[in-house]
Write a structure and sequence with these properties.
Number of domains: 1
Strand content: under 5%
Radius of gyration: 19 Å
Number of helices: 11
């Protein structure tokens, strides 16, 4: 039964990842007093893309043919290392923040390589911007999850989430809040949301993620878009399990309902941020990510100052 819960969790997260993005877009339109699109629109988009012809630039090398699969593969692997949804479910306890961050960085590396391989000048611009942002996101993410893992008493991310659910570190509330703020900023940055990037724009001079995939089409574009939705659900799942550590119950149905509720709450928070903020200029992005790094350091330092480690 433990393994059934484990594989069901992986399948469920992969299945709802486009739905969450569709919900965010629909909710944003509702907040802006527009007629909302269907929350199932991303599924229709994927079906449309997989039915279209793949066109590859003459300047592109074999990298373009394999990069979409290499972008997706590390993210699928990360799904197997996420914290459990159900109490008593099997989980991989030895995977730490460095492993998860490294796998997601590997996916980003192949995305940047895809942008460069097209020979398009905009692809190079997008790849350089992505490298610029990732260089600031990754250390902050490692520090944030590492600090939270110390509070939970285990460096394994999944085991830390279970420990936090069983015993919340109320004596280190300051460290927890600092890590909470840092990780939410990282969620927005790494998944290409406003104020770091605008997932709905098609202006080459302002976008980051979309610039790298301008020359990708058909099924290859569908695979890259699926990878983008998986990345969001990975961050949302980590946020729900580590920073909203409640809901793991002996009743599987209650655990499942609480988890879905937390994921949709995160989606609502992202939509509210995007409707109330404008996209930052590229050279203002380091200021925002610098705030995330500072809060990550404060989380770690306050944990030590308050006697977290004897």
């Amino acid at each position: 039964m433990n393994l059934i819960y484990y594989f069901f969790s992986i399948f469920f997260l992969a299945l709802i990842s486009p739905l969450i993005l569709g919900f965010i877009k629909s909710f944003k339109m509702w907040l802006l007093f527009k007629k909302p699109v269907s929350i199932f629109q991303p599924y229709k988009n994927f079906l449309k893309l997989f039915s279209k012809e793949v066109i590859i630039s003459e300047e592109a090398s074999a990298i373009t043919r394999v990069a979409p699969f290499l972008i997706l593969a590390p993210l699928v692997l990360v799904l197997f290392f996420l914290p459990p949804i159900f109490k008593g479910s099997y989980y991989v306890s030895f995977v730490d923040a460095f492993t998860i961050t490294g796998l997601m960085s590997l996916s980003t590396f192949f995305l940047m390589l895809l942008g460069l391989d097209s020979g398009n000048s905009f692809g190079g611009i997008g790849s350089s911007r992505e490298a610029f942002i990732s260089a600031l996101v990754e250390p902050a993410m490692v520090l944030t999850i590492f600090s939270l893992s110390l509070m939970a008493g285990n460096l394994g991310v999944a085991k830390a989430a279970v420990n936090l659910n069983n015993y919340f570190p109320s004596n280190h509330m300051a460290s927890f809040v600092f890590a909470f703020i840092s990780f939410f900023i990282l969620l927005l940055a790494e998944t290409g949301r406003i104020p770091v990037d605008n997932p709905e724009t098609h202006l080459e001079l302002t976008m980051v993620h979309e610039t790298m995939i301008l020359d990708v089409s058909g099924a290859y574009l569908g695979i890259v878009e699926i990878a983008g939705s998986l990345k969001f659900i990975i961050f949302a799942s980590l946020f729900a399990s580590l920073f909203l550590p409640f809901g793991l119950s002996s009743n599987p149905l209650i655990s499942f309902v609480f988890f879905v509720f937390k994921i949709f709450c995160i989606a609502v928070a992202v939509a509210l941020v995007e409707t109330n903020m404008a996209k930052l200029r590229l050279f203002k992005v380091p200021n925002l990510l610098g705030v995330a790094i500072v809060f990550a350091f404060l989380s770690l330092i306050s944990f030590y100052v308050l006697g977290g480690v004897k």
